[in-house]
Amino acid sequence: MRGLLPFLGHRVFRALIALWLVSTVVFVVMRLSGDPVPLLLPPDAPRSEIFRVRAELGLDRPLPVQYAVFLGNALRGDFGRSIHFRQPAARVVVEYLPATLELGLAAFALALVVAVPIGMLSAVRRNSLLDHASMGLALVGQSAPTFFLGILFILVVSLQLGLLPTSGRDGWRNLILPALTLGAFAMASIARLTRSAMLEVLRADYIRTARAKGLSEALVVAKHTLKNAAVPIVTITGLQFGSLLGGAVVTETVFSWPGIGRLAIQSIYNRDYPVVQCTVFLSAVLFIAINFAIDLLYGVLDPRVRAG
Amino acid sequence: MASSIPASAPAEALALPVDARASRGARRTRALALSGAAFVLLLVLVAIAAPWLSPQDPIRQSLRGRLAGPTLEGADGRAHPLGTDHLGRDVLSRVLYGSRVSLVVGFAAVVVGGLVGATLGLVAGFRGGMTDAAIMTVADAQLAFPFILLAIGIIAVLGPSFPTLVLVIGLSGWVSYARILRAQVLALRSREFIDAIRGLGGSVLRIVLRHVLPNVLSSLVVVATLELGRAIVLEATLSFLGLGIQPPTPSWGGMIQEGREYLDSAWWISTFPGLVLMATSLVVSRTGDWLRDLLDPTLRGE
Fold it and tell me: Cα B145 vs. chain centroid, distance in angstroms?
């Protein structure tokens, strides 16, 4: 069996490779998209002015040099100045980050709080109406396109019932629908997985032993089953948290939520390269860091995975 | 999900001999998989027959008949069972025509992803060493990142066009195919008869066609079905963000986007294409699950 350290080393290496590949793709894609300078200057700007701005942005240097400079700066968190906001891109993105984190955490918390109890109940009351209804709903939740789910929520909850606001970010009431939309897929996946993990454990011999000893059903479920079902639940939960970041782009756009997902889309339309680069890079760092933390937690919880 | 098993099923099922229970489950799965496949076939037929099924021209505008609710006799004297949009176009016709975009992009993306993934998987399996390590590292890296962000960036830069869309959506799904083929090649490579074939001068192509592909065909069918569902949803998402199929060509994602501004006055513009998209996504992905249970139970849990 391998120790924890080599396991970690391997994971760190993989995370760094992933980060490097993502940043390289970002660089290539952004450079393919044409010259941003004409967007910055009035149409009648003299050629000398165009050359001055190009030099200022480093766009006159050979591509490999630009790439090296980009990687070096990225490592220091420097992505240049935002063309649209006229301040450092990193500062702009960091300003928008809290809204995304708030939305992500709320979605995640909502998903967990709803999904784990439902998954457990569905397993314990297998084939009951609750089981069929919630698992059917989970299947819909897993396959429903995020953006249309958001539209449906706005249509029914905000417009027809008038219960919650349709957009913006000024209070907890604004948070509910976006969090539900963003968390729906994770909620569905976690509920299904919790159910199957619980069912798996409920079949185990030691559960039969616990029951035979005369322990109450509640105690069997709470103490013996949940603890052993926790490992797969933690794993899928971590994976889901990472993929929430991808869903944030769509959810933030639907609900006009001022986070980095919406910022990325707007910056693409503005051709604001530095901000797009910084957003994608920062999301990649976040995503990889989260997966890394989950791997770590998994390795601690279940020593068997270190061998694999 | 509606289930045909009554609430007392577990007790009954326990009383049955094991193989009887299994075959009952298998029969049910087969029926479900077939009905899912029938749904996809029906969708294909609808897409092909859209010009004959549609009551109206999907891009014909009518200012007099704008924003009409579902009606059998609109202000323009025509029936609009699903209403009209902000330009007076018939929503039903647009939903029917929209299936063409979804299916063409979906199937094309599956073909692109399948070809690229299969090729890379075979190369990784046969070459091994650094080539294998490089390909699998890229695969890991791609999975380690929310691809939609990159897809959005790439399409925004290259401009939304049909080939770009197919390429980006297709490439977002190559990893699963590559893994399946690579694993099969690795499993075969250790077998002596492969060495024998090569020793006798048999080509790699022959090995692939005669020994690798037949072994993974069912896995590929399952993955392709699941990928089709994913591709259709991704196309709709990109069209919704304005990065997919451009107007006036009707696409479900684009229609949902166009109806967004009229949600409080004309809910039907977004809702109907959305419901059809949701149903399609659900049935196609369930079909993938059923096919997996039927053809290849070992894939379960991936």
Answer: 20
